[in-house]
Each structure stands twice: as C-alpha cells, then as structure tokens.
Amino acid sequence: MPSAHEERKEKPWLECHFNDINQTSIKKPHEFGISQQDCAPLSTISDDVVDRTRGSIFGLAVGDALGAHVEFRPHNYMVANPVKDLVGGGTWGLEKGQFTDDTSMALCLANSLIACQGFVAYDQLVRYKWWYRHGYMSSTGHCFDIGANTRESIEEFEKRQSNFAREHNIALNQIDQLSDLNLLHEFKVECSHAGVAGNGALMRLAPVPIFFFRHPKMAVEYSGFSGKITHGDDKAYDACRYYGALIVAAINGEQKNELTSKSFYDNHSEWFGGRTLHPDIMVIVQGSYQKPGGYQDGIRGKGYIVNALEAALWAFWSDENSFENGVLNAVNLGDDTDTTAAIYGTTIYRFNSYVPPRENQLVHWFINGKSYMEAVAKALLKAKEEVFIADRWLSPELMLIRPTEDDTFRLDNILGRIADAGVRVYVLLSGETQFAIPFNNSYAEKVLMSKSKNGFIKVIRHPNRKSLFRLHLWSHHEKMVIIDQKIAFVGGIDLCFGRWDDEHMRLVDLGAENITTLESSDETIAENIVANISLEAAQQATTQTGEKSTKNLRKIYEDNADTEIVDKQKSSITDSAIIDRKQRMFIGKDYSNLYEKDFEALDRYDEDYIDRKTIPRTPWHDEALVVFGQTARDVARHFIQRWNNHKLEHFPKDDFYPSLLLKSYNDEEDSTVCNWKDFLKSKPFHVQSQCVRSVGPWSVGMKTVEFSIQNAYIQMIDVAKYYIYIENQCFISIAQDSTVHNQLAEALFKRIHRAHILNEKFRIYIVLPLLPGFQSINAVQAVLYFIMRSITKGDSSLFKRLERAGISPMDYISFFGMRTHDILMSHLVSKRFNLSYDVDILCLSQVSEVIFVNSKLMIIDDRIAICGSANINDRSLLGQRDSELCVIINDLEEEEGRLNGQTVRVGKCCFSWRKKLFEMLLGIQFENPYNIDVTDPISDEFYFYFRHVARTNTLIYEEVFSTMPTDCEKNFDQVSEYMKKPKMKDTDPRGAQQKLKDIQGLVVEYPIHFLEEENYLPSLRTREGMAPTVVWT
Questions:
Q1: What residues contact 948, with CB distance under 8 A and at least 6 apart?
Q2: Are 135 and 142 in contact (CB under 8 A)?
Q3: What is the spatial distance between Cα 547 and Cα 553, in angstroms, rounded to a whole number?
Q4: 254 near 49, Cβ under 8 Å?
Q5: Which structural domain, as residue segments, surrounds residue 616?
Q6: Is residue 361 a contact partner of residue 629, using CB atoms and an 8 Å limit?
Q7: Sign (positive/negative) of CA torsion 939, 940, 944, 945?
C-alpha cells in the first residue's frame, strides 16, 4: 500500500496547485479541481443525504445572494424597504444571484475537504488566501466583502508562511503546496487570538459537518477548529461546534422539533467530548432564540457570532417550514444581512423529502369523488403523450361521470380511446396481499391491457405474488393520476367502485322503485328525509347537473373520437341498462356497503352483490388535490421510480415494459398554464407546494427509508398557531409504545401542552370513520382496539397523558364522526347494529348510515395543508411499510380572515377548503337560515357550537335508531341492555321523523369511550388474531 505522501505524488491534483512555478499564471478553480473519476461514487451515500447536502449548500448560497444587495442596511431601513426576492445592485453592485464572501469561503473549505480527503487546516488557509489575493471561488473573479477578522488572520497566515519557508529552506513559490505531514503538524495554523468572535467563522462551516456526517463527534470538533483558525475566541469555537452538531443531526435525519429542542445538547453530549459550551452559547442552546417577536424581542443580525447564531436559529425556528419565510425573515433583520441568511440557509430540504418545496405552483382541491372523477375524466381526454395511474385498487368499469346514458365515460373506455390515439398509458396496481379486501387487480390488468390493440396500455402489479408461501403484509397505497407529467391528481380516492359520492351522501339508490313514505299504524307520513332535503330534489339537482356536464364532455370526447367506435359503444348498451343509468347513480358492484359484505365476482361488475332494497349503501367521504408544473413532475418522479423498480424486479428483460424517463419543461410556462380550464370549474390557487412520501427498499428499491410524510405532520403540528383540522381513515399513534412507533400523538401532546402552559386558545378537530372499514368483525375489532388505545384507552393514550399533566383534553381536542339517514322501502334506515358477544368477540351487522371517512387531510391555521394517501398509523408513516404519497401546500394568495376573534391574513386555498368542509359537516352548504359563521374555528362561541351540534345529532340518532358504537356502552353488559331498548323508529315512526328534523348536517361525536372496559382484540383462534400485530397498526 502506498503511503499518503506517495499517493499525493501519484495524484497531482491532491496538491491542488493554484499558481504555476513562476507565479505568472493563475489557474481557475475548475482547472485544478478533483477529477470526476477520482470522486467517491454517490451510490455509497443515500439519496436522502445527497438531497439534504445539496439543500444545505444551495440554501447557503441563496441566502447569501438574497441579502447581498442590502448588506449593512439597518433594521429600520429594512422595515421600510423589505426584501421580497432576489435582486441585483445595492451594496456591492452585484448581478442578481451573485454571492459574496460567505459562499466563497464555504466553497474554499469544501474544495479543501474533497481535495485532501480530510481536514487539513493549512490547506483551508491556503485556499482562503487564494480567494483573498486572487478571487478564487469568488462570483466576480476578485475578493470583496471580506471581514476584518478574516483579513487579519489571512495576512497573519501569509507572514507565518514566509517565516516557515525561510526556516525550512522551502521556496516561497512552493509553500502553498506543503504536503509533508510532519511539516503540516509543525505549522501553527491558529492565526487568530482570544476576543476575535466575528460571524465569519460560522458562515462558512457547513461543508465540515456535511463531510464528516457519519462521524458526529469528529464533525463537531472539526467544526469548532475550522472556525478557530481565523476567529480565536472560545465563543466562536463553541458557536461553530454547536451549529456543526445541528447540521450533522439534520443530515442524519433528525427533525426540526428535535433540532430546536432545549434538550438537544444534553441528548448529544457525547458529540462535544465532555467540554462544556461557553455560557453565551449555552443561553442559545436553552432556546434564547425562540422569541415570536424577532427583532422586537432582541434578535439581531449583527456581525458578532453570538448574535449571528441566535438570529439564524430564530429564522429557522419561526419559518413555519417555509424556506422562503425563513430566509426573508433573516435578511429583513438588517445589518449583516447576507451572513445571517447564509447561516440560516444551511438548513436542509424540509421534512427530508426526496424533492424540495416548489414556489408559485397551481393547485385545486376536491371534496368527494364526484368532482374529482369528473375532473380526471376531462383531463385524461386532453392527454397528448402519456398517462401514469397508480391505485391500490382500480375498477375498469368505473363510471367517472354520472348520470349518463351510455358507457362513454367509463374508465376503461376512456383509456382505450386515448391509447388508440397514440397516448401511452402506464398503470401501477398493488398486488394482492393477505388480510386485505379481495380487489382482483389481476382482472383489472387483463381488462385494461385488452383495451389497446397497439399495446399502449401497460400494467404492472406489485408485489406480484408468485409463491403461495411468500407473505406480503404491505401494499402500495398511493392514489395518483398524472397527465403528460404536467398535471397530477393526488389524494385518497382510488378509481374503483364505492368511491363516487357528492354532497348528498346517498344511502339509497333505487330511483322510482323506492317507497319514500313511512309505514305507520295511524297514518302514512309522506315526508322524505335526506338531511332535510327531499330525495327527489337532490336527485333532480344532481341529474340536471350531471346531464349538463355529460353533454359538454361528450362533445369533447366525440370531437376526438372515431364516430364508428362511439356508435358501437352506444349500441352495445341495452335499453334497460340505459333506463337503469338514468334512474340510478350506482350500477352493479358500485352500490356497496363496507360493513355488510366484501366485494365479490368483480368480473360481473354490472350485477348487484347486495340487495339494495333492504341494505343501504355506505357513503364515502374523501379528499384530493390536482397540482401542476414542477409539483406534478415531482409526483411523476415518484411514479417513475416505482415503475422502473418494479419493471427491474418483474420484467428485467421484457421490452414490452419500458423504463420511464422524467421530462423537462419550461418552468415559467408551467406556472402560467391555463389548461386547468379544460377540467376545473374555478381557477386554481397559487401556493408553495412539496411532495412528501413514505417509501423504502421493498417499495421503490432504495437502500434507505424515507418517512417525510411523518416528518411533515410532526413539524406542521409543531408550528400550528391557532388550530389543526384533521380528517383521516385512522388514528393509531401511541407514545412510548412497544408496538406502535409513529410520533404523531406525541406531537399533538406537546402542542397541546405548550398551549396550556402559555395559556393559548388552541383547537384540534379530528374527524374519523365511526368504525374501521372492514366486513370482517375480527378486523374491525383489531383496528378499533388500537384506535381506542391511541385516544382514551390505557395510560399511554393521548387523553390520559393530558389528564395526568393537569390538562382537560376537551378544552383543546375533540373527535368527531359522520352519519346520515334516509327512507328505504318505507322504513327509516340507519345503522342497524346487532351485537352479540362471546368472551371478547364483538359481532356487528348492517352498518348503514355511517359515512365512511377515508380522507387523509390536515389543514392548519387556514394557511398550510397536507393531503394524500397516508393514514395516521405505522403502516403509512414509518416508510418501510405501505408506500404513500402526499402533497403539502402553503398558501401564497391571501385574504382577510378571523382567528381567535382577531382579523388575520389567511390563505385562499386552505381557508376555502376548510370552510366548505365545515359547512358540509354543519349542514349549511345549501342554505344557512341561521347565518352560522364558520370563519373562526377556534373562538369559544364556534367551538362549543360545533360540539353542541355533534352532541345533539348523536343523541337523536341514539334515541331513534339505538345507533352503535356509542359511549353509552363501556362494557358488554351495557351493550346487552342497550340493545334491549325499543327503537323509536319502530315504536313511533312519526315521532322519529319529527326528531330527525332536528338533525343538523352530518357531524356526530366519535365514541371515544366505547367498550373502554373490555379487551376486544381478536381471539388467537381467528385468522385475524393469528396475523402479525403490525398488520393492524
């Protein structure tokens, strides 16, 4: 093995000559840098670390450039003239985007680490000298904006070089190339002295902790030493050590709440080698920067290193997870604007996601399947090159627009038509997994691929289980449709049966066959009850809207379609089927009840599998988004990564399944696209957006696990100022539990605890399905058990922890569900709950008026939101289990709103979304006779009103229908007594009808104390009881 010295001789670039031997020619940086073939391959570093590293370095340069033109401007000037974007000119007369000394010195340091393959302080000083004397790594080709402390240290270094060369008989023109290890050790590189504590030591240090990220203790020590060679005070040394530790932790995946925790130093004390930090730095460690008032609270962007560190951390702590917010706040403190922003900028991509936030993006939301599927259908018909679809379950015969007279707008027919027109269609479906509803995606694969004669529709199912003995516990859970990598639909809505719903949330779909009069011993009651709106009126309104939409869309379709093909499709439909579609919204298997029976015989899609004259359907509530431009390409990036990984696994040598490539488009054009007019009824909103996901080795082939969805939820909860609104299919999160590991409940607990300590008015609304969505009672029991353990059941539950901390949970957080009711064949129908039990076995039947909440949505402060496919459980959040994709939006367009009684600026997208949902829950989306105002969700008046409506609705349902689950039943004995009670709908239909008139909207209380005294985990004798616990969590 050659020695390090011999290796340097064999690789001249390790010497990094800057001047030629006669000092007459200066090489530019790219002319002597390390060659590409000599670099360590990126494959040895995870994609996450590479992305975080890029984010840190780019963030530094962006912050530096942003503040350059106003450097040295005082705070009062910045208040009058706030920086809002990158501009040129100003202090240094730079071009827009040019950086200053902060970035130049960081690049000098980075190049030294790479060239020397380690920390060589002498080489770092040489490069700083090159920058000072020759403009090395400068954006202008010459040195400018050098700090006095840095200049003095470099000049001191030059003097020491001259003396050292004379003492050791080294030619002065060769002293920069010093590489002998003994001589390097002898040279005194600390060229500063005590009392020198400028921010120049801090602004450049990021490359050190990045380079040594695998060795935190070494990274922290070298961070300190990198500053000490030019800034000799202990405060500079310790400021660099502490900030270096923060960067190392961030690069290694720690989250913002951990980085800003007052216990961070104690939790990582071993990194600091037992040496206590300077008292002035310890004040910062203890959170001195956590001041909401910023400048008014004493935060200063000065050249003193203690001020600089505190200001940068304040910008990070208060940035609301927006790099733009943070870097602008840092600059607008004034004074040393570029350095404060540069130090802040070394923070990495938010949430450790695979992509950064995208600025000025277009987005629009959808509530429920009707508007979503109609938009998808219209967008598909406008596809020009390619379509990507990923679903857990897909039903080829799904009618995307209804009511309709024919199969024109059936999903498989639309895909077949665009494929025949030359559009490539790529579909990813989840393979069949154990303990899941039988979706028969293999049938969907065959149908879709048969729709394209030219082979332009390609389907991959993954995991494709070939062995009966191979156990697949996890699934691909994303739901996305991507058109030409420019438009992407993302959310919780699979393109499958049972997902289409509108604001009417129908339980009954019989058309004229339904008998809408109530049977009574005294008289016939002819009033229909559907959320206080007649069934006839609801059906007529929907039919008229649908027919108008269908006519418009058919024109689009037929303009692009071969007339003969369309005619054949029309003629293939029988007259009776046409009549059926005119009268009914849900054909065949699309009329479903989650709790009554699993789907079966999906190839006979037009046949009912439950009796719609006796069994109501289960309404389906869900949320989704459409995004454009860069964010749409980020969604496509995820799809492409999955497709290529699955192709490699299942079809490595099959050319029928090509590898896909990411496209490049004009970003400026993307931000002004008007193609939304083809499928949206209103203009999309301008937002900052970012894709986050849960993926790991099995799902996308990465060596590492990404759980940026969980990171995003935790950090968004942490920065919530006024309220949190959550809709989710699940809520399984238990602190310090041996089975459940995600940290969302912990984040909620900490936020509520902080509100309590600070005496803040803070509200959390959580809407869940009243029962998990399984026909199997054992599966219902398993999931329900962990949900109740998360909320109220046991010492580790959220409510019990809050109560032990002296906090009344209901002052801050409430859980809700959704119900509706109707008349079916002359009977009031609701959730008819037959319950029997044997030891710990809970048996349910016919759950009819429960509205199944499948949403995966969180809205915070009417400003930021996250929506996608991820449930609140370990399956969706840990990364190595189910694969998921979500989109975070941060409003850029504002309007006047009101929170906590105060007029505030709120985001147009998030506010309109939350407002529409609250109106639907309270039943005022059609008319609002009492002028209920949903603008301020955290005021005492509204919060108590919302809970009052939920409570009133719950009591009425229990009185009329004896609905279950209910808080009246804490054990099985109480269940037995409750079930014996006569139901008002049977004993007094007329009185029940009058009672139901008082139902307002859809919201009811979630039964957080249901069977809390019982253990109802499935018996080990059952299939579900033998399943690994992780399946249910």
A1: none
A2: yes
A3: 10
A4: no
A5: 360-624
A6: yes
A7: negative
For residue 658, cis peptide bond before it (omega within 30 degrees of 0): no
Considering 24-33, 538-547, 894-903, the range whose residues carry the highest mean pLDDT is 894-903
379 shares a domain with 321 = no
Distance of CA 652 to CAs 10, 646, 697, 931, Å?
41, 9, 18, 62
Residue 292 domain-assigned (yes or no): yes
| β-bridge mates for residue 814, sequence order | 765
Whether 420 is covered by a domain: the verdict is: yes
What local confidence, expressed as pLDDT, does residue 669 receive? Answer: 55
Find the mean pLDDT for residues 148-173.
94
Compute how many other C-beta atoms are within 10 angstroms of the C-beta atom of residue 991.
14
Q: Is residue 596's pLDDT more than 90?
A: no
d(CA 475, CA 436): 9
Question: Please, which residues bridge with residue 997 across strands?
Answer: none
Looking up tokens 């959320």 gives: 531
**H-state helical runs in 722-853:** 744-757, 777-791, 798-804
Phi, psi torsion values for 61, nearest 5 degrees: -65, -40
pLDDT at position 159: 97
The neighbouring-strand residues paired with 488 are: 482, 627
pTM over 0.85? The answer is no
Omega prior to 652 cis, within 30 of 0: no
The structural domain count of the chain equals 2
User: Which residues are paired to 19 by β-bridges?
Assistant: 26
If residue 545 lies in a helix (H) or strand (E), which one and from where to where? helix 535-560
Asked if 892 contacts 902 with a C-beta cutoff of 8 angstroms, the reply is: no
Helix or strand holding residue 890 (H, E)? strand 884-891
Same domain, 333 and 450: no
Are 429 and 460 in contact by the 8 Å Cβ rule? The answer is yes
Domain boundary (299, 325, 348) is at 348
Which phi and psi angles does 430 have, rounded to 5°?
A: -75, 135
Cα distances from 191 to residues 233, 483, 718, in angstroms, run 11, 59, 43
Confirm whether 97 is domain-assigned.
yes
Cα–Cα distance measured from residue 114 to residue 212, given in angstroms and rounded to the nearest whole number: 11
Which two structure tokens, joined as six digits, stand for 636?
């496509």
Tell me, yes or no, whether 219 and 305 share the same domain. yes
Q: What is the DSSP letter of 304?
A: B
Same domain, 402 and 301: no
More confident residue, 772 or 51: 772
Cβ contact 449:457 at 8 Å: yes
Per-residue CA distances from 367 to 393, 717, 782, 857, 886 (Å): 20, 23, 29, 11, 16
Residues 471 and 432 in one domain: yes
Residue 662 lies inside a defined structural domain of this protein = no
- ∠ CA 10-12-17, rounded to 5°: 160
Same structural domain for residues 368 and 245? no
